[in-house]
From TrEMBL:
Molecular function via GO: carbon-sulfur lyase activity; metal ion binding
Residues covered by the CENP-V/GFA domain: 2-114
Keyword Lyase: yes
Organism listed in the record: Roseovarius litorisediminis
Name of this chain's protein: Glutathione-dependent formaldehyde-activating enzyme
Coiled-coil boundaries: none
PANTHER family in UniProt: CENP-V_GFA DOMAIN-CONTAINING PROTEIN-RELATED (PTHR33337:SF40), GFA DOMAIN-CONTAINING PROTEIN (PTHR33337)
Lineage start: Bacteria, Pseudomonadati, Pseudomonadota, Alphaproteobacteria, Rhodobacterales
Family of the protein in this entry: Belongs to the Gfa family.
InterPro entries, per database record: CENP-V/GFA (IPR006913), Mss4-like_sf (IPR011057)
Alphabetized UniProt keyword annotations: Lyase, Metal-binding, Zinc
Amino acid sequence: MIHGNCLCGAVSFTVDGPLGRATCCHCSQCRKQSGHYWASSSAKENNVTVTGEVQWYEASPAAKRGFCPTCGSFLFWKANDEDRISFSLGLVQEPTGLRLESHIFVADKGDYYEIADGLPQLEKS
């Protein structure tokens, strides 16, 4: 089971079930919301239990982004037509047992850094 919470502790979550791959997203929306690129994993939405209020922002017609309305922590990303929800790895209590597997949307990455960890780099997802 994975446990996580926002910076102020007003929102916490648990994930009980299989996890998706751990990735770093370099798309312009993740970079703008997180301040850099965003490391996340995912799970089926019915395996995620959230305590506290999550504010949702409709980032595009295809997806929304959840954050804590108190401290602003970027918590979740959810595609409207999927039964999975992504959660920020920076919020998860260790040990996670996860390892990054790839970088996605690298075509949008910032010009101020290089990706040099040897993991696969996908132009899209």
